TrEMBL record:
This is UDP-N-acetylenolpyruvoylglucosamine reductase. It is found in: Cytoplasm. One of its GO terms (molecular function) is UDP-N-acetylmuramate dehydrogenase activity. Its EC number is 1.3.1.98. Keywords: Cell cycle, Cell division, Cell shape, Cell wall biogenesis/degradation, Cytoplasm, FAD, Flavoprotein, NADP, Oxidoreductase, Peptidoglycan synthesis. It comes from the Bacteria. It catalyses: UDP-N-acetyl-alpha-D-muramate + NADP(+) = UDP-N-acetyl-3-O-(1-carboxyvinyl)-alpha-D-glucosamine + NADPH + H(+). GO terms for cellular component: cytosol.
Length: 342
């Protein structure tokens, strides 16, 4: 049953641990809850913020509107054939728990995305990715509520217009729909992605051979790597990678490599562009381990901005702007936030 509350602290609901309040708060357990909300006249004109796991969000102050937390649960095997499983999950399902559910049952394709914070509903909005795999590679369709009418619409892969950490829900359809469920097409025969990052090295350290390689082994390796590099939000407030990896023209990359021979780059297929790790750029600008008050750049991963306790959203954002400025001055490259600023 829908329950609207007033003046709710958002600190437990954002992984940065920022102190901020919502004027109104509602938790959606079922699409019908949102449809009920649409008919409550006193909230129709109130600005609304849709919240999943709060793991890709920087709050820069109180939200003078309604925060709607999507908490629709449930995982269902919709169908299968000789090659694939189609699995549907509610938008409020914890992402990592969903990945573990699939790994345990031998549903292949999500193992490289283990231990990413957040919820299933947020995954396609951001087209989350890690270690050579992105959501769009395993995505089948999603269901979403129209925020004005309450009608449910199904979006196909093509209609989502996926890009690097992008989808139609961040651009043309921004603030128009609320994702309620996502269906994934997963494989019965795994295609292993082990060449990205330190996965192959970590698998070797774990004693995994070509003969014993499995989706669980890949998942375990990814979890080990992430835990070694990224801070736990339960211990240090953060939202994971704060910046996107920039994509620059190949000519610019080659010119920069003259001065910086060790600059890593990953050519993008069918383009004349190269993806450069933002963490490397930030580290070369001297930010790794930097701290101003309680706002800082993580000591082990320069791509992660952290809240050591009492930093405000404005202080984290000010640090982010300084990092962007220095990277631009040193390399002539613009790095953009991956997190959503509110």
């Amino acid at each position: 049953m829908l329950n609207v509350q007033s003046n709710v602290s958002l600190k437990p609901y954002n992984t940065f641990g920022i102190h901020a309040n919502a004027r109104y708060w509602a938790e959606i357990q079922d699409p019908a809850d949102f449809q009920t909300l649409l008919h409550l006249n006193e909230y129709v004109a109130v600005p609304k913020l849709i919240l999943g796991g709060g793991s890709n969000l920087l709050l820069t102050g109180d939200f003078e509107g309604m925060v709607i937390r999507m908490n629709i649960q449930g995982i269902e095997l919709v169908r299968q054939d000789e090659r694939h499983y189609w699995v549907k999950a509610g938008a409020g399902v914890n992402w990592h728990e969903f990945v573990m559910y699939c790994v345990k049952r031998g549903y292949a394709g999500l193992e490289n995305l283990s231990l990413i914070p957040g919820t299933v509903g947020a995954a396609p909005m951001q087209n989350i990715g890690a270690y050579g795999v992105e959501i769009e590679q395993v995505f089948e369709s999603l269901e979403a509520l129209n925020r004005q009418t309450g009608e449910i619409r199904t979006f196909t892969h093509a209609e989502c217009q996926f890009g690097y950490r992008e989808s139609v829900f961040k651009h043309d359809l921004k603030d128009q729909y609320i994702i309620t469920s996502v269906t994934f097409q997963l494989d019965k025969t795994p295609t292993f992605h082990t060449s990205y990052g330190a996965i192959a090295e970590t698998l070797a350290e774990m004693g995994v051979t070509d003969e014993t390689l499995s989706i669980k082994a890949v998942s375990d390796a990814v979890i080990r790597i992430r835990r070694s590099k990224l801070p736990d939000p339960a211990e240090i407030g953060n939202a994971g990678s704060f910046f996107k990896n920039p994509e620059i023209p190949k000519e610019q990359f080659e010119a920069l490599r003259v001065e910086w021979p060790d600059m890593p780059g990953y050519p993008l297929a069918d383009t004349n562009r190269v993806k450069v790790p933002a963490g490397w750029l930030i580290e070369r600008c001297g930010w790794k381990g930097h701290r101003t008050g309680d706002a800082g750049v993580h000591a082990r991963q320069a791509l992660v901005l952290v809240n050591y306790g009492k930093a405000t959203g404005h202080e984290i954002l000010a640090l982010a702007h300084e990092v962007q400025r220095s990277v631009g001055e040193k390399f002539g490259i613009t790095i953009n936030p991956e997190v959503n600023l509110v």
